[in-house]
Amino acid sequence: MSKNVRWVCLFLAAAGFDSVAAADSCKLRIGLSFPTERSATPLDGRMLLLISTDDSKEPRFQIGDGLKTQQVFGVDVDGLTSGTDAVFDGSVFGFPLPSLCRIPRGEYWVQGLLHRYETFRRSDGHVVKLPMDRGEGQQWNKAPGNLYSTPRKMMIEPSSEELIRISLDQEIPPIEPPKDTKYVRHVKIESKLLSKFWGRPMHLGACVLLPHGFDEHPEARYPLIINHGHFPRTFEGFREEPPDPNLEPEYSERFKLPGYNRIQQEYAHELYKTWISPGFPRLIIVMIQHANPYYDDSYAVNSANVGPYGDAIMHELLPFLEKQFRAIGAGWARFTYGGSTGGWEALAVQVFYPDEFNGCFAACPDPIDFRAYTVVDIYNDKNAYYAEGPWARVARPGTRNHLGHLSSTLEQANHRELVLGTNSRSGDQWDIWEAVYSPVGLSGYPKRIWNKVTGEIDPEVAAHWRENYDLRYIMERDWSKLGPKLQGKIHLYCGDMDNYYLNNAVYLTEEFLKSTKDPYYDGEVDYGDRAEHCWNGDHSRPNAFSRLRYDVMYVDKIIARIQKTAPAGADLTSWRY
């Protein structure tokens, strides 16, 4: 019995399946290959086999957490030549079913996809293979250059000994870059720091929302606000044109709202009207583009695995933007905000660069205290996937709704990532946390915070996380130095029924902040009653609507902070026209 088959058998047994030997006895094999016209040279990457019962869209767009996910299997390929099959059999790990052998006999829509990797020779001496972002924001199912097959409806018979062959005869085309407008500009620079780290040219980008009257007031210098978050193709949520009256309404499954795409256009147009209205403060808002080989976002900090993104953003990108777009360029006139990933980043850059920002507004932040790494205490729990007693073993939840109804477990989410990519290469949430926070392993890839299969936590890696990225711990440890620099700058918001349990870490951080002395933190922590991810402090609107108002929600507080803290002689007038 092969090692892979043996492991799948053990997994099936642990999961309570009736046939432990199924993975070894199953004869089903599916081979994925690509023709020479797609690539005459060998390719590296992650080969994915997708199987679906739903013909409403391609299987590659149907993989996710929750009950509606379809099936995926994955294998690494190194130097795969055209015409050579990457073979999937009962030994290949899958999600949500762990083995091809568990698929019931029947007809399914089947598709193959190759997520292509390239080789990086990093400055730390490690050579790694990773998927470079190609303008899509690290989405394996949309990445230009990835090869895939046209979905086929076919019979799957686990007992069949015939090799089913599928050719990846399609290629995802390049993405057309967005065009500049009067208000929105797109900037891209090569980063010397990141290029040196990765051993190849690396770039940072920005989507810049310019203030009304920017061209007409060349003497004005403006405060700068960074909106952190996931990869923005352009400045999202800003629309000069009224909503499209012919827009076909789309239903939002998340918010249970019909026509949510029209609602988004309405709010985007409202932002435009507010932005140009008389008396509205003239500011610059920037969305940063920092997709990297691990994720659609770097978390805006220096990292042993991802690179010196914190310093690259602060010391390369921001000076470039502030010079080109006439920002004031001083810490008292810089602010940052964001939600979820962006919420963590907003607090992180405020903590790690305390003099360079005058306030952060962090909504539904990713775990800011690793004693509540969603539902795991990485310092005291032994297993991430299960709470265990002398007799009982209970799965830890992964996602919930506002009533507490579960849609996935933490184990399921991590196993899905493991299928999409080994060595923290799924391009998804748990893997990027690991890539950012962990030390480099002997292989050159991130050290696992826990065994991705079993959930067993590595206490040495957890200790590294605490000292370098546990934001609550770092603030408490260094408060005598950080406190005077952070006083009045920290604003935290979270729904008390956050879908990913992110409120748990906010509670723990609030306990610390409200206990601070010399000085008192003098900021704000607020919760939305039964509010889900990503509540941002708006008690007057449901989540579905308040999330569309991030870009104006904190402006009044920002202006009040500027007026209170600006140094003598600071420019408080040139940008108030």
Q: What key phrases describe this protein's structure?
A:
single chain; alpha+beta; Rossmann fold; 8-stranded mixed sheet
What does this entry look like structurally?
With 577 residues, the chain is α+β, with helices and mostly antiparallel strands. It has three domains: 3-171, no CATH class; 184-369 and 471-565, Rossmann fold (3-Layer(aba) Sandwich); 374-467, no CATH class. Helices cover 25% and strands 22% of the residues. It has 15 helices and 25 strands. It has helices at residues 3-14, 22-25, 192-198, 260-275, 309-324, 341-352, 410-420, 429-437, 459-469, 471-477, 479-486, 503-515, 543-546, 550-553, 555-565; strands at residues 29-33, 43-52, 71-80, 86-88, 94-95, 106-121, 127-130, 147-148, 152-156, 163-167, 170-171, 184-190, 203-209, 224-228, 284-289, 302-303, 307-308, 334-339, 360-363, 386-388, 393-395, 397-400, 406-409, 490-495, 524-528. The strands form six sheets. Strands 2, 3, 5, 6, 7, 8, 9 and 11 form an eight-stranded antiparallel sheet that branches. An eight-stranded mixed sheet has the order 12-13-15-14-18-19-24-25. The protein has a three-stranded mixed sheet with strand order 4-1-10, with no helix packed on it. Helix 12 links the parallel strand 24 (490-495) and strand 25. The model is unreliable at 12-22 (pLDDT under 50).
